[in-house]
Write a structure and sequence with these properties.
804 residues, 22-stranded antiparallel β-barrel, 44 strands
């Protein structure tokens, strides 16, 4: 047999009850942790079963011995099923264009803590596979958002952005409140309240997004959903190498360049392998600062890499270890300023006299607003597979350091705390840094899924230490430096949880799932503050414990022709915390912010038709969000967190893809979200907006990929991509309303590729549209001037790649 030459320790235990070919192949893929594509090629009839220990090839050969289809192993993670050849096929006059790999829907995901085909899960989940990442040249999260329904990102700058899912926005700022979206690298959470680290998507197997609160499985960081980066794993049997290099030129800006590569090497064939990936890129600046007399100030450099190790101990146990690091340095921010019409005459005269406003498309700062983001990660996942199920233990440690510098000059003259102490000629510089250490242990035990009752049980523990030193310095005439404000803050969080869920097959395609999470979170905050006279120093020390239960229930029915319909109720939550910042102590009612909670009611449908060429996923949802936490800024520019109000959010999201036999594939996604803010908090000292800020009512995207086979193994690939972000406002505070959005992002590319080589030319923002992607950039002046973040101007680039 084909698998006879394979190592004995590569055999896996398969338990597949009698069922149609397509269903049996899907079960095989789940149990072997591989993607099985094209299962519909076997038809809807026939019945087959499998029980025993086999290599993957042996299992496939036994299942498809008498089937009207055949298999081919594409790579270590992918199996392609195709119709069996006819006895005497007529010669085809022309070779049919290949079906694009970019829009394959049968992707096995693990974001629900068990391997499953995305379109068979009763939850709003999307996956962007490796082939689509390569075809669209997606190198970071901001470029991926237009390909996934309901996922948006703020545009403060690389390493500073905040992810938003399904219009569930607590505001556009990043502060003390825990992120509404939890970012995962493989099996480990990598953020708490920090911005997304903006890891470059090099040698990535796929991106997974789970929408809506996932408190039952993931806890407090998943109120709006999960964004998960799944790295490519070492191949135990075959070596693999790849590299790409590119350059780009931006209209009116500096050139950009990039280089990355990977290598996968079996050390002991069939048992031990390593995989190394490394990258470097430079994004050329394109904004000018007229006050400093500098052009293209906003250059960003990013470099990093990963080392992965896979060890197959025996037929049951496997260890995956990963170490990753990235350094990102932006020389300056990427917003421009204009006069804010809402500013008072006194404020307007002050900022005009100081020269803080540049011409359209320019900025007039007196300080470079640099940002540094250093990310380090180490983790290991141990997995054991048994006849009854499996056990997975994941341990991870994240060390994340990021710092920013801001021009605080504009606030010195008009800020009440400093009134009379400084004048408009003084130079204000605010620096802040965050050092975050996150240690996580997650243990999951799950059943094999072979019986009517399928279950999962988990234990979770996490410890986070976050240190935040910040300083406001004033440089006066004669080079006299005065420190007006210093704060050294420490936040310690401990979280423990027991969670689980069970699913029962009711028969007739119906099944029900019940789950929940019991949790306890302790938050302890201390802060040492040294403030200019007449305010003086002070010390802050507060602690509190939060606990509760986060439930989940879902009902689904599998459809005979493929797909399912489902109903789902889930919850998400975030623990409370404390406010310490400010020239003078915050009043008692605002010294702490309370827990917020979101309950989600959802119905959805997933359909596959026309031999899986047509795929549709849609969901309607209603969310009840109580006691919303939001990050705000005082008039001095210092941040704090408050509970602002409750909200009700109703939405409709959809993703559709269709693959033509001619080689054209089309993918469309969209989100319509309507929010109503209600019950404003009495402690929120400003008029409250009627809608959630930071997210539009309408957003969506379209991706078209056309492939045509040329001579030999040469393929032409044309890609067109566009996404629209509707109008939104910046904050809950209507006195600071700054509209943004209503812009279109677009990208076109053409690529010639062989099995080993490829060359691409592309253009981003071909219409050279400016737009306003984010009406914010500096907390010390956004209330005084209008801040606008334009799109990067038209950029033309080339990219060369090779894989062996």
């Amino acid at each position: 047999m084909a698998g006879a030459a394979e190592a004995e320790d590569a055999r896996l235990r398969f338990t597949i009850p009698s069922r149609p070919y397509a269903d049996a192949l899907i079960d095989l893929g789940l149990q072997a942790n591989v993607s099985v594509l094209g299962t519909s090629s076997c038809g809807l009839h026939g019945s087959v079963s499998l029980n025993g220990r086999y290599t993957l090839r042996e299992a496939l050969a036994r299942l498809l011995d008498d089937a009207p289809c055949r298999y081919s192993i594409v790579d270590a993670r992918t199996v392609r099923i195709s119709p069996a050849a006819a006895p005497s096929p007529a010669p085809a006059p022309l070779r049919e264009a290949p079906r694009s790999p970019a829009l394959i829907s049968e992707v096995v995901v693990t974001a629900t803590k068990r391997p499953a085909v995305a379109d068979q899960l009763p939850v709003g989940i999307s996956a962007v596979p490796r082939s689509q990442i390569a075809a669209t040249r997606t190198v970071d999260v901001s470029q991926a958002t237009g390909q996934i329904a309901g996922v948006l990102s703020t545009n403060l700058g690389p390493g500073r952005d905040k992810l938003l899912i399904r219009g569930l926005s607590d505001g556009a700022f990043t502060g003390r409140a825990r992120s509404t979206v939890s970012t995962y690298l493989d099996d480990a959470p990598i953020n708490y309240n920090a911005p997304d680290p903006d890891l470059r998507l090099v040698d990535i197997d796929r991106i997974e997004v789970v929408r809506g609160p996932q408190g039952a499985l993931y806890g407090s960081g998943s109120l709006a959903g999960i964004y998960r980066i799944v790295t490519s794993k070492p191949d135990l049997d075959q070596p693999a190498f790849g590299a790409t290099a590119g350059a780009a030129w931006t209209k009116g800006g500096d050139a950009s360049h990039e280089v990355d590569g990977y290598a996968s090497l079996p050390v002991v064939k069939g048992r031990i392998a390593i995989r190394i990936a490394a990258y470097q890129d430079v994004q050329g600046g394109y904004l000018d600062d007229v006050k400093l007399g500098l052009a293209n100030v906003d250059q960003t450099r990013r470099n990093g890499g990963r080392v992965a190790l896979r060890v197959r101990m025996d037929g049951n146990w496997r260890l995956d270890a990963l170490a990753a690091t990235q350094n990102l340095l932006s020389n300056d921010t990427q917003y421009v300023t204009t006069r804010k019409s809402a500013a008072s005459n006194a404020q307007g005269m002050a900022i005009e006299e100081a020269g803080w406003i540049g011409a359209p498309g320019q900025r007039a700062n007196r300080v470079r607003e640099a940002h540094n983001n250093d990310f380090s990660y180490v983790g290991a996942t141990l997995q054991g597979d048994f006849a009854w199920g499996s056990l997975t233990s994941s341990t991870s440690y994240v060390h994340h350091v990021f710092s920013s510098q801001f021009d605080a000059s504009a606030t010195l003259t008009v800020s009440a705390p400093l009134g009379g102490l400084v004048n408009h000629e003084d130079l204000g510089v605010f620096t802040e840094a965050t050092r975050s250490n996150i240690l996580v242990q997650d243990l999951v035990v799950r059943s094999s899924g072979a019986d009517a009752f399928d279950w999962l049980f988990g234990l979770y523990a996490a410890r986070t230490l976050e240190q935040n030193p910040s300083t406001l310095g004033v440089l006066s005439a004669g080079s006299v430096v005065m420190t007006a404000y210093t704060e050294l803050r420490k936040d310690r969080q401990r979280e423990y949880a027991i969670y689980g869920e069970g699913s029962y097959d009711l028969g007739g395609g119906w099944s029900i799932t019940l789950g929940g999470r019991v949790f306890e979170t302790r938050v302890h905050t201390t802060a040492e503050l040294d403030v200019i006279q007449p305010y003086g120093p002070r010390f802050f020390d507060r602690a509190r414990t939060f606990n509760g239960v986060s439930p989940k229930i879902s009902v689904q029915r599998s459809l005979a022709q493929g797909g399912l319909v489902y109903g789902l109720i889930t919850e998400g939550y975030r623990p409370g915390g404390f406010n310490s910042s400010g020239f003078f102590p915050i009043r008692a009612s605002r010294a702490a912010f309370a827990v917020d909670r979101l309950r989600n009611y959802e119905v959805g449908v997933k359909l596959q038709r026309m031999d899986n060429r047509l795929n549709l996923r849609a969901a309607a949802y209603y969310d009840d969000w109580s006691n919303i936490q939001t990050d705000r800024y005082r008039p001095s520019g210092l941040a704090y967190t408050a509970n602002v109000a409750d909200a009700a959010i109703a939405g409709l999201e959809a993703e559709m893809s269709y693959d033509w036999p001619t080689g054209l594939s089309l993918q469309i996604n969209g989100l319509i979200s309507d929010s109503r803010v209600r019950n404003p908090s009495r402690d929120f000292d400003a008029p409250v907006a009627k809608e959630l800020p930071g997210v539009p009512r309408i957003s969506g995207g379209v991706l078209a990929v056309y492939e045509r086979s040329l001579r030999g193994d040469l393929t032409l690939r044309l890609v067109g991509e566009a996404s629209y972000v509707g109008r939104s406002t910046l904050t809950f505070d209507t006195s600071q309303t700054q509209p943004m959005g209503q812009y279109l992002r677009a990208r076109l590319s053409a690529e010639l590729a062989t099995e080993r080589w490829r060359a691409m030319v592309y253009v981003v923002n071909p219409a050279n549209d400016a737009g306003d992607t984010f009406a914010y950039g500096n907390p010390f002046s956004f209330g005084l001037v209008r801040q606008v973040t334009p799109q990067r101007p038209r950029t033309v680039g080339v990219r060369l790649g090779a894989a062996f």
